[in-house]
């Protein structure tokens, strides 16, 4: 067993090293998300060839044998496949925790520390005490027999040659329940996405991929993470996960509608949580007045209630919106605001480092 464990650990180190070398490729791969199980994810990596001996071949063929000078070599058609090894792809399983550790180590991301008083106090019951009375279902058999043994030894009725221990009523001991308070840090991720006409499928794929890595990283630091989804054009609404990733809308954009909905959601259900809102848009807002209103909602309501607010501006073409500039100009000194520009799928890795790498 020791040899097997060593080989397994060595194989895992090789796999982790292979993934680290191509991390940017894996981060931007949308197919990775579809392979996610309950707590495992399948990743395809190039075949890891283990050195081994091969048998040699007998000499022969053209230039050897009994043929005469200038004699043609007859060709024999064959429908058999070649005997050379083909290229193989190896599929390995990793837990989400392993994937998050590789992700954080390679990007040099700091550990996330829960902030403020946003911790949930849970009461759990543990049977760690012993008492003389209780229901028979909680009787502690070992302690009961110990008490009976001590009593019989003290009374001189215990015979080592014929050890018969019969517990009496006063010997019985029962497990005692005790309530213990446990502090657990819970988190909620609130995703907001602009679904106006200017946000195409390519931009939505970028948001979908980033959402997977955001969840993977935050779940490594919190025992319980909830996800909420908000979509908006000129109006905002809360939707389920499936709708968030596949909805198609058209029309204009009012970012303040999403921030209003986000603020209402936090006030209603998540005041005691570690709150992480993420907003993705092309930055093309309907008006300067609405941008100012959105910034005011951020400053007065969302940011004070959040651990960190992240805004990702996804490029949709040659024309870029101005909202990210408005945020940076007005909220330049706001430590809990992080902004990132995402050119394409290759920019996901840098955006994640901006979001979680600290300022």
What are the salient characteristics of this protein?
alpha/beta, 359 residues, six-stranded mixed sheet, Rossmann fold, flat, two-stranded antiparallel sheet, 11 helices, 3 domains
Fold and architecture overview:
The protein has helices at residues 2-21, 23-27, 31-34, 96-107, 141-155, 201-219, 241-246, 255-269, 288-305, 323-330, 348-356; strands at residues 40-46, 89-95, 120-131, 174-184, 186-194, 224-232, 236-239, 274-281, 309-314, 337-342. α10 links the parallel β9 and β10 (337-342). The protein folds into three domains: 1-49 and 88-108, no CATH class; 120-181, no CATH class; 185-356, 3-Layer(aba) Sandwich (Rossmann fold), CATH 3.40.50.410. It has 359 residues and is α/β, with parallel strands linked by helices. The strands form three sheets. A six-stranded mixed β-sheet has the order 7-6-5-8-9-10, with helices on both faces. The chain contains eleven helices and ten strands. It is flat and about 95 Å long. 36% of the residues lie in helices and 22% in strands.
């Amino acid at each position: 067993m020791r040899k097997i464990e060593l080989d397994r650990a060595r194989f895992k180190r090789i796999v982790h090293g292979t993934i680290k070398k191509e991390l940017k490729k894996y981060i931007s791969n949308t197919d990775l998300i579809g392979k996610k199980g309950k707590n495992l994810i399948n990743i395809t990596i190039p075949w890891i060839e283990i050195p081994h001996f091969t048998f040699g071949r007998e000499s022969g063929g053209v230039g050897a044998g009994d043929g005469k000078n200038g004699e043609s070599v007859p060709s024999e058609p064959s429908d058999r496949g070649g005997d050379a090894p083909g290229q193989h792809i190896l599929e390995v399983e990793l837990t989400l925790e392993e994937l998050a550790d590789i992700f954080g180590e390679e990007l040099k991301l700091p550990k996330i520390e829960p902030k403020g008083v946003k911790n949930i106090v849970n009461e759990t019951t543990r049977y760690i005490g012993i008492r003389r009375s209780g229901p028979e279902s909680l009787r502690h058999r070992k302690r009961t027999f110990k008490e009976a043994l001590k009593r019989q030894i003290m009374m001189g009725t215990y015979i080592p040659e014929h050890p018969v221990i019969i517990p009496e009523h006063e010997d019985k001991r029962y497990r005692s329940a005790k309530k213990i308070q446990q502090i657990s840090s819970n988190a909620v991720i609130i995703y907001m996405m602009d679904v106006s006409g200017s946000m195409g499928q390519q931009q939505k794929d970028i948001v979908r991929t980033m959402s997977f890595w955001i969840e993977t990283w935050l779940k490594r630091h919190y025992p319980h993470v909830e996800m909420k989804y908000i979509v908006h054009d000129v109006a905002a609404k809360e939707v389920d996960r499936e709708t968030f990733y596949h909805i198609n809308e058209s029309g204009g954009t009012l970012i303040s509608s999403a921030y209003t909905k986000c603020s209402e959601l936090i006030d209603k259900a998540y005041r005691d949580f570690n709150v992480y809102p993420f907003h993705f848009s092309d930055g093309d807002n309907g008006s300067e007045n609405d941008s100012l209103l959105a910034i005011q909602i951020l400053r007065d309501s969302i940011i004070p209630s959040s651990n960190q607010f992240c805004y990702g501006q996804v490029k949709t073409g040659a024309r870029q919106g101005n909202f990210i500039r408005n945020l940076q100009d007005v909220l330049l000194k706001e430590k809990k605001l992080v902004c990132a520009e995402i050119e394409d799928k290759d920019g996901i890795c840098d955006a994640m480092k901006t979001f979680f790498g600290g300022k």
